[in-house]
Amino acid sequence: IVLDVAELNDNGAFSTANGEIHVTVHNTLAGNISASTVNGEILLALPENSSMIVSASSVINGAITSDWSGKNAEALIGDDYELVVNAGKYHVDCSSVNGEIAIRKANRAN
After folding, report:
1. pTM for this one?
2. Which of 15, 25, 36, 109 ranks highest by number of CB atoms within 10 Å?
3. Is residue 49 classed as helix, strand or coil in its secondary structure?
4. For residue 19, what is the DSSP state?
5. CA distance linking residue 96 with residue 60, whole number of Å
6. 52-61 and 79-85 as β-strands: parallel, antiparallel, unpaired?
7. pLDDT value for 54
8. Strands 71-74 and 12-18, sheet pairing
9. Are 69 and 49 in contact (CB under 8 A)?
10. Rounded CA separation 51/79 (Å)
11. What pLDDT score does 25 carry?
12. Among 93, 110, 98, 90, which residue's Cα sits nearest to residue 28?
């Protein structure tokens, strides 16, 4: 699943069993995002000035990385990551059973 938009003005839900999810929002995040995959990576590139609460979890295998500083709880199996940017108006939830998750700033994603 690939989405590359200037603005996201509504909620977006992206899910796949086997495959990658790449979502890039260049200018305005004005909605919640949910991204989940069983086998595959998730890459979200979001505007640096976004107001969001990010929750990410990898169940079995896969690192979670971010361009923002957040709380990363690495475990023997799986990782959990939490982050609040600005006022945290919108929710960004990501989960992968077997795959990496990257939360990037849109201007640095390329």
Report:
1. 0.89
2. 25
3. coil
4. S
5. 8
6. antiparallel
7. 95
8. unpaired
9. no
10. 23
11. 97
12. 90
